[in-house]
Design brief:
CATH class of the largest domain: Alpha Beta
Strand content: 15-25%
CATH architecture of the largest domain: Alpha-Beta Complex
Shape: globular
């Protein structure tokens, strides 16, 4: 509605219009219009990688006849739904309305039955095995993975709140909530969720067996040239590419680090406070050697004002049962309000350290270990892409859901690595949905071809077109 407002001088009027939309008539019988052009590009990318075929081969038929909807296709459509912001089986119905883009899409009921009755733990293990060769092909094509640099893995767990007591294996959490506590292993260079295990909310944080299970699952996902020599009991001479794993203080156990050594995998784990570490830090106050503490640097190589790093290996004995060659690296930085746990009580500094068996300068090792914080970004992406809701009461179905959530997140990361550039190659799920996945278009038919015409003026139309060009170039 137009109105008139007097100017500040009381002379004349100005027209204002606060409406944010135009007046239109809404009808429900539109044809040839689609709303998920970017998701179609993501699906075309999955098809180019033969991801659906690989998954289909891992799901045995449930009866004498083949199902109407191929199970690999059902899982790929579920991944597209998760990438697009869906959280449960019912959300796949949004894709069913766009058959000209996605073909026949299974109903939410069929999708539910696949997870509930067909994706047993053995089948899920088969799905992981089927994804590994696809991941291998992606790593061979990406410049960030096709190198000789050591592969860095990050293990961490998180809490997922569940507002129902009817789901199997849920339990109270140490934060006073209720739900699950899944554990993950990520590839630092790409952010891929290589492994995930569903655990109850009260699962022990420092369970070495859980850490080694997800580590072995992650190694199984790596290309053969990377995984060589890193399985339990492999001889050291069979290693072809170095692998190193980082973990927080939950991984600071003799069982975990010994398991890493048995797999020829380097480690760096956050140190826990104890009397020996406290005494070592205290001794640095009385030392006359001023060269022990060196200026700390940020991830970009710039100095961090007031922060320092020192190696205290000569002042401590390795924890009982740990392998030889471990080092203690400690960082101190000016104490600030709200500072978290410190290795040493001090009114001036917060102390933080880690144990590692890696060679190198302590300052650089500190930089590498602090990059373990990337794991929080990876978990945040998963929570924004289906992790926060487990739709089933059955534990095995929820474990299968967790696996597919990780597959979907990895598919998006592969798409960003091989098909996108600039900011879109690093964008979070919300930005990708807003800019790519939900791009609108009109589908027209010309000379027996289906042509998708993206909405004129759509800001990232060129990125979608270039992505399709890169998909077509994949071999």
């Amino acid at each position: 509605m137009l109105g008139h407002i007097e100017s500040a001088h009381g002379k004349g009027t100005c027209q204002v219009n606060g409406n944010s939309t135009r007046r239109v008539r809404i009808e429900a019988d539109g044809e040839g219009v689609v709303a998920h052009v970017g998701l179609h590009a993501l699906g075309a990318f999955a098809d180019r990688l033969a991801l659906g075929d690989a998954l289909s081969a891992a799901v045995p038929p449930a009866g004498e006849r083949l199902p109407v909807h191929d199970r690999g296709k059902v899982l790929c459509h579920t991944m597209l739904m998760l990438a697009g912001g869906g959280e449960c089986c019912a959300d796949v119905e949004a894709l069913r309305a766009e058959e000209r883009l996605f073909g026949p899409v299974a109903s939410d009921t069929t999708t539910w039955r696949v997870f509930r009755h067909q994706l047993t733990p053995e089948v899920v293990d088969g799905l992981r095995a089927a994804v590994a060769p696809v991941r291998n092909r992606v790593w061979a094509r990406s410049s960030v993975t096709n190198t000789a640099e050591p592969v860095v893995l990050d293990i961490d767990a998180t809490l997922v709140e569940v507002h129902s007591e009817n789901k199997d294996d849920t339990a109270p959490t140490y934060k006073g909530g209720f739900g699950f506590g899944p554990m993950f292993c990520f590839a630092d260079v790409t952010g891929e969720a290589l492994a995930a295990r569903l655990r109850p909310g009260n699962a022990a944080a420092n369970n070495a067996a859980d850490h080694l299970v997800v580590l072995d699952d992650a190694i199984a996902q790596l290309p053969a040239a990377v995984a060589a020599g890193h399985r339990d009991g492999d001889p050291a001479e069979s290693v072809r590419r170095a692998v190193m794993v980082r973990a927080d203080s939950a991984g600071c156990t003799a069982g975990f680090v010994a398991g890493c050594r048995a797999r020829n995998i380097g480690f760096a784990v956050v140190a826990r406070a104890n009397k020996q570490v406290t005494a070592a830090i205290s001794r640095t106050y009385t030392e006359t050697n001023d060269d022990r503490w060196a200026p700390a640097i940020r991830q970009n190589g710039e100095l961090r004002p007031g922060a320092q790093v020192a190696e205290l290996t000569d002042l401590v004995d390795p924890p009982a049962g740990w392998p030889d060659g471990v080092r203690l690296i400690v960082r101190r930085e000016p104490l600030h309000p709200g500072a978290q746990h410190s290795l040493f009580p001090s009114t001036n500094f917060r102390y933080w350290g880690h144990w590692t068996d890696q060679a190198g300068d302590p300052v650089n090792l500190d930089v590498s270990m602090r990059a373990h914080a990337h794991v929080e970004n990876h978990i945040r992406r998963l929570k924004d892409s289906g992790l926060c809701r487990f739709p089933f009461t059955d534990r095995d179905a929820n474990q299968a859901w967790l696996a597919v959530v990780c597959f979907a997140a990895d598919l998006v990361r592969w798409f960003q690595l091989l098909c996108l550039t600039g900011h879109l190659a690093r964008s979070e799920p919300k930005a990708l949905r807003w800019r790519l996945w939900h791009a609108p278009a009109r589908v027209v038919r010309h000379a027996r071809d289906e042509i998708v015409r993206i909405l004129e003026g759509w800001p990232d139309a060129d990125a979608i077109i270039r992505a399709h060009q890169r998909i077509a170039a994949l071999t």
